[in-house]
Amino acid sequence: MHTKFSSEDIQFRDEVRAFMRDAYTPDLARRIASDKTFKDAQVEWEKKLYEKGWIAPHWPKEYGGAGWSIAQKFIYESERSAVGAPDVMPFGLKMLSSVILKFGSEAQKQRFLPKILSSDEWWCQGYSEPGAGSDLAALKTSAALDGDEYVVNGHKIWTSYAHNADWIFCLVRTSKEEKRQQGISFLLIDINTPGITIRPIVSIDGRHTLNEVFFDDVRVPKENMVGEPGKGWTYAKALLTHERSMAGVADSKRDLEQIRQWASEEVNGGQALLDDPTFSKRLTDVEIDLMALEFTELRSVAKAMKGEGPGTESSVLKIKGTEIQQAVQELRMDIAGYYGAVVQGELSSHEVGHDFGSSAREKYMYGRAASLYGGSNEIQRNIIAKFVLGL
User: What is the pTM of this model?
Assistant: First the structure.
């Protein structure tokens, strides 16, 4: 494994650090953390990246991509996570763009890519349905061709940020084939089209990021079909490679540094929580797992630097990455203790307990879903069993 960074890479790292320090302000971080100000603040952050030319590292340069090497992409993600800056919203900039760039028509590239790049149009992902989550091929939302339009009827669920989106890309059933995957197509839909209803799902952390989306005779121009009818499953698999890159190593490293600091300040039974043998062992176990995951990620980076595409290691990174994230969330809750159960402002006009107590609870609760979304960890183990172990 060869992942030695060049002097140019080190110079680039220093440039990224300086940018993050100046551009990602405490006020911007505060507004991104609030549901009420999230979208405006996130767009402001993405436009800073857009103006810098860093908004789309994975795009070809001729379409506005950064033209970075694999090493530079890795360095950027590490430095971004180190300061707690958010990633871009992935649905347009990472997921849909990869499909349009590879399978879309030239007209679709010219229409959609510039506004995705500038964050002037936001997208959401219409994949999961009631009864069709990890078994996505069971989806039933239909699109019937009527003249120059598709008429869409059905129901999507767990649609992240649909209430903030301008467009939704959907997997729809355009024919009934013996093999379920062969009747699925990939359709781009303006979310303000008549017949679309969005209903919020308030998750267990008390926040609204998820939604149900209903389609009732929604008419979509047939030129919004990406690629060929019936080939949507092929396009979806290409997209899911980006969704399942959830190792989150740099974010978990930053979280563990915070946890170590908080545990050194938290007194429990007359001693720092960090000195408690049981807590210390749990923290060390997570750090060891994270170190192993980082080397696995670096091996994946080394393969990419040699021009090799991602393989089943995407499933390994997804499984272990999300398990570590959940373990980190449990450690944070242990430090917060009873104060993690207090919703600030609920009992008093004054904040009580740790200033991270409320966020610890929110992250712990929402984080229970990490091993489900993006393809459940059980499904990822099935992929490994089939394609690595040959079972």
Answer: 0.83
